[in-house]
Specification:
The complex is a heterodimer of chains A (458) and B (433).
Chain A (H helix, E strand, L loop, with lengths): L1 H10 L4 E17 L2 E18 L5 E6 L5 H12 L17 E4 L12 H17 L4 E19 L4 E19 L2 E11 L10 H15 L2 E2 L3 E7 L1 H12 L12 H6 L13 E4 L20 E6 L2 E2 L6 H7 L7 E2 L8 E2 L3 E4 L6 H5 L4 E6 L3 E5 L2 E5 L2 E6 L2 E7 L2 E5 H6 L1 E4 L4 E3 L5 E3 L2 E4 L2 E4 L2 E9 L4
Parallel strand pairs in A: 4-6, 8-20, 9-16, 15-26
Antiparallel strand pairs in A: 1-2, 1-5, 2-3, 5-6, 6-7, 9-27, 10-11, 10-15, 11-12, 13-14, 16-19, 17-18, 18-21, 19-20, 21-27, 22-27, 23-26, 24-25
Helix pairs in contact in A: 1-2, 3-4
Chain B lengths: L1 H7 L4 E17 L2 E19 L2 E7 L5 H14 L21 H4 L3 H18 L4 E17 L4 E6 L2 E11 L2 E11 L8 H12 L9 E7 L5 H11 L1 H5 L20 E4 L20 E6 L2 E2 L6 H7 L7 E2 L7 E2 L4 E3 L6 H6 L3 E8 L11 E13 L2 E6 L2 E6 H4 L5 E9 L3 E15 L3
Parallel strand pairs in B: 8-15, 14-20
Antiparallel strand pairs in B: 1-2, 1-4, 2-3, 4-5, 4-6, 6-7, 8-20, 9-10, 9-14, 10-11, 12-13, 15-16, 16-17, 16-18, 18-20, 19-20
Helix pairs in contact in B: 4-5
Classes of the chains: A alpha+beta (458), B alpha+beta (433).
């Protein structure tokens, strides 16, 4: 294959050409209630050629059939000549590398039988189903995926990287009359089968929470001081701030550049945020991004001040900054775009007790159902929450959805906990049509003042 | 076909689906043509029933058919016992899904249309940044099963998506429009005009105080209520017992102004085809009629589990087994002209778009979202855009009392046809500033 790839690159008439091939084998075992929904293996193989003509644009060809790469390069080149650009598209230089990166798994899930994978998730599913007669259904899944990615460019880079991923998802759905509540726990990382074994406690936690939520009242809408747990704080920084730090949002938009100018104050001095694509095992980690650029750690907010952003080669060149290794693609069906890897709020100095003790009436929001940003505005939903009354955690409440304006909300973070955690949760991030991309969030507890929470009337 | 022969000897029932797609796309970013892309996709998905157990496997590697058959049979070893039967051929409706005008559109013509769209938006809002994507394709689907069903068709999807961003200081406005069709319409600027009108309306900012106000949902905004409704009507959620509508067929659950229909037989729409993805003919199914729950929508497996018949709503992507999904979902038009509905509102909110659609516990009917695009209505007029407003509620309570449904409907996203719908009163939370 190597010879074929090199010959195809050599045949290209474009200023820059890259070929990325992927072979992936993925296993899914999923239960819905007591029914096994699927226990199956998928084989996915294909590739993408991307050509750049500096006075034109990008041309892309994606395909399953990898026999005639020279023809694919020609197709991509023809596409690249369609556009005409007065201002040439430049790519920031990246080191030329030749490397083969093998996955190093303790218990390689490819050696585990489908029967054993099924037995593992069936065990978790039984815990969910037997927990209470209120649990009417479950959504319980094991999945693993092993990709071999070959990236080669006309600049001489040739990288072969193995990317493993293993995930369990345990979700319980409890019902009492018309009242239906869901709770979930998940675990995912670039590890072997051992990483998802012994997770019975997660299943029990999810089941108990779903039952507890049946008795929870909906939160009363209004403005509150809110303490956000590690998981939700991680989702928050990813959704509300992280997406704005992706340079493809600002690089061609002068107004957006003004808004996201380096040196602008985003938070109080206690706030520090970074993205790190190097940390072993985390879902967003790769040695190289999908443009062959080595990943690294990028400081985004330091002592409350915006100090950096995430780049592809194109956005870095345009803005005169350094590429950061954040050009990522979910599969060979897509070109790389600027994405986060593992994004986190650095730990602070406040203990949880100190954070909560002065709150007369507030909300302790935990876990995440998801979130969305439209740049300055964000919305994210907590999986469960408690009222805070007189400095103490009080009753469980449901339907807590936090919304707000990024700039005011970040400035309203007035305490950062000393209890940092990386969350090994599954799921992924969506941008454009590319979903789900594996990412990881990390954070300590944080406290935010004056958060708007939608909800019923008092 | 080789793979069919292999399966004939090794399973009681089988189903093989071949997918083959080709598409061409041009993408404008920040007002300029940046990328063009061609895509070729091939894949095979196999289901088998062996000793009564259902198995599934899929592959995009055409050379791996032996492994594919092996994987499907292995999957069936662990599969559940399901009383499913892959059906023989049935008469299907004639549905238009292919138009050579679309497949023949040359790339330069796509580029021209893209430029026209960008120019149209910039003439309304010179400061805007416009992203446009135009994609035309040709798709072949062919299904074969042990009962001799050979359902195949081709379609010619064309999608036009337009996004306009406008930033003033820290005020960011993002508007989005999507049009999807499989037959060519000369008026390809319709979606762009719709977006342009919203841009004009959004220029003026105004404020709103929290309180109980009438809320008018536009077709696009109505998805906020439509999504929980769609989940509740999904046969799988009914079978697993999590739908609040379970066991309530024939009951008046909603206002008699609410009618919901699934229809996969409409010409040229993204959800349309002669058959669903399991070879069952598409049809028109009344789900809710004048507020009365009439039907749920099912695929083969969920129907078999529920003792019902498939409604032709089996839907699949290559790498997952089928599951029930709406084809085209229609909320029926009412009898009030939109102008009269607007005129009836003294003070209220018009909801155009929300943030975080589908987040939270929506199967319970609950939703809670900030509004990413909303307008204030005063004395029957739309007077300006309001920011930092959020809505929360539960459709099973709210949709019992609908004030009006418009005579006009619009196609939004790819497969939804929705009217304007007015709720007499909702708790609206607004944050100053």
């Amino acid at each position: 294959m190597r010879e074929k790839i090199l010959a195809a690159l050599k045949s290209s008439q474009a200023d820059y050409t890259e070929i990325r091939l992927e072979e992936r084998e993925a296993t899914t075992v999923a239960y819905r209630g007591k029914d096994l929904e699927t226990a199956s293996v998928a084989i996915d193989a294909g590739g993408i050629v991307r050509c750049l003509c500096k006075d034109g644009g990008w041309g892309i060809a994606t395909f399953n059939d990898r026999d005639d790469l020279i023809a694919k390069v020609e197709q991509a080149y023809q596409c690249a000549t369609v556009a005409h650009s007065d201002e040439p598209i430049e790519l920031a230089p990246v080191p030329v590398r030749e490397e083969r990166i093998a996955a190093n798994l303790q218990r390689d899930f490819r050696d585990i039988s489908l029967a054993d994978k099924k037995a593992l998730i069936e065990g978790y599913n039984q815990i969910l189903l037997k927990h209470s007669d209120k649990i009417v259904s479950t959504n319980c899944a094991y999945s693993d995926s092993f990709s071999r990615i070959t990236f080669a460019s006309s600049e001489g880079t040739f990288i072969e990287e193995e990317r493993p991923m293993v995930t369990v998802f345990t979700s319980a759905i409890a019902r009492d009359g018309d009242n239906v509540q869901t709770a979930y726990e998940t675990r995912s990382g670039q590890f072997g089968f051992e990483f998802v074994m012994g997770q019975e406690e997660k299943a029990r936690t999810a089941a108990q929470r779903a039952v507890d939520l049946l008795r929870a009242e909906s939160v009363v809408g209004g403005q509150y001081p809110v303490i956000v747990n590690q998981e939700l704080a991680g989702v928050f920084i990813h959704e509300a701030f992280g997406h704005l730090s992706e340079a493809d949002f600002v690089y061609e938009n002068p107004k957006a550049r003004e808004m996201m100018v380096l040196g602008r104050r985003f938070g109080q001095d206690i706030l520090n945020v970074f993205d790190d694509g190097v940390l072993p095992g985390l879902r967003g980690t790769h040695k190289y991004d999908d443009e062959g650029m080595p990943t690294g750690r990028t400081a985004l907010i330091k002592n409350g001040i915006l100090v950096g952003r995430l780049h592809s080669r194109q956005t870095a060149a345009k803005m005169g900054e350094q590429p950061t290794g954040n050009a990522r693609a979910i599969t060979y069906r897509f070109p790389p775009i600027v994405r986060m890897t593992n994004t986190a709020i650095e730990p602070g100095a406040t203990s949880f007790e100190d954070m909560i003790k002065d709150i007369k009436l507030g909300v302790y929001a935990c876990g995440a159902y998801g979130g969305q940003t439209e740049l300055e505005n964000f919305s994210f939903s907590s999986a469960y929450a408690y009222m805070i009354r007189d400095g103490k955690i009080a009753e469980l409440v449901k339907d807590v959805i936090l919304a707000g304006n990024l700039f005011t909300t970040l400035l309203n973070i007035d305490a950062i906990g000393d209890d940092f955690q990386w969350m090994h949760r599954g799921g992924g991030c969506g941008k454009g049509a590319q979903y789900p991309l594996p990412v990881t969030f990390g954070a300590p507890h944080i406290r935010i003042q004056n958060v708007v929470i939608g909800g019923k009337k008092a | 076909m080789d793979i069919l022969k292999q399966l004939q000897q090794r399973a009681e029932q089988f189903e093989v689906v071949h997918l083959q797609n080709e598409s061409t796309q041009v993408k404008f970013e920040s007002n300029r043509l940046k990328t063009s892309q061609v895509e070729e996709t091939k894949g095979i998905a196999v289901r088998v029933v062996k000793q009564g157990r259902l198995g599934f496997a899929a592959s995009s590697d055409a050379s791996a058919t032996e492994q594919l058959v092996k994987n499907a049979l292995e999957s069936a070893r662990y599969g559940d016992l399901v009383p499913i039967s892959f059906p023989a051929a049935q008469t299907a409706p004639t549905v238009k899904t292919f138009d050579a005008t679309i497949t023949d559109l040359p790339i330069p013509r796509l580029v021209e249309i893209g430029k026209e769209i960008v120019a149209y938006i910039l003439q309304i809002e010179p400061e805007a940044r416009v992203d446009v994507s135009l994609k035309r394709g040709i798709q072949h689907v062919a299904l074969h099963n042990q009962a001799g069903n050979a359902a195949s068709y081709q379609s010619s999807p064309l999608s036009i998506s337009v996004q306009a961003n406008k930033i003033q200081g820290d005020d960011v406005l993002i508007l989005f429009d999507f049009t999807g069709t499989t037959v060519w319409h000369e008026d390809y600027l319709a979606g762009t005009r719709r977006l342009g009108e919203k841009l004009k309306l959004a220029r003026r900012l105004t404020t709103l105080s929290s309180g109980n106000w009438p809320v008018l949902f536009s077709p696009n905004g109505l998805l906020m209520l439509g999504l929980p409704l769609q989940q509740g009507l999904n046969g799988k959620n009914v079978f697993t017992g999590i739908s609040p509508m379970k066991g309530k067929l024939g009951e008046q659950l909603f206002s008699d102004k609410l009618t919901v229909i699934d229809d996969g037989t409409l010409d040229g729409k993204f959800g349309s085809a002669p058959y669903d993805d399991e070879g069952v003919p598409h049809r028109r199914t009344a789900l809710i009629e004048r507020g009365v729950l009439k039907n749920f929508f099912y695929d083969l497996k969920t129907a078999a589990q529920s003792g019902a018949a498939s409604t032709g709503n089996g839907s699949r992507a290559l790498f997952a087994p089928p599951s029930p999904a709406p084809t085209n979902l229609l909320i029926g038009a009412g009898d009030t002209p939109l102008a009269d509905i607007l005129a009836s509102v003294n003070q209220g909110v018009l909801v155009e778009d929300v943030l975080g659609l589908g987040q939270g516990n929506i199967i319970s009917g609950a939703f809670s979202n900030p509004l990413s695009l909303a307008f204030k209505i005063e004395k029957g007029e739309i007077v300006g855009r309001v920011k930092n407003v959020s809505l929360a509620g539960n459709i099973y309570t709210l949709l019992k009392n609908v004030a009006a449904v418009s005579r006009e409907t619009e196609w939004v996203y790819s497969n939804l046809n929705l009217p304007y719908l007015l709720l007499p009163e909702m708790n609206v939370v607004a944050k100053a500033g």
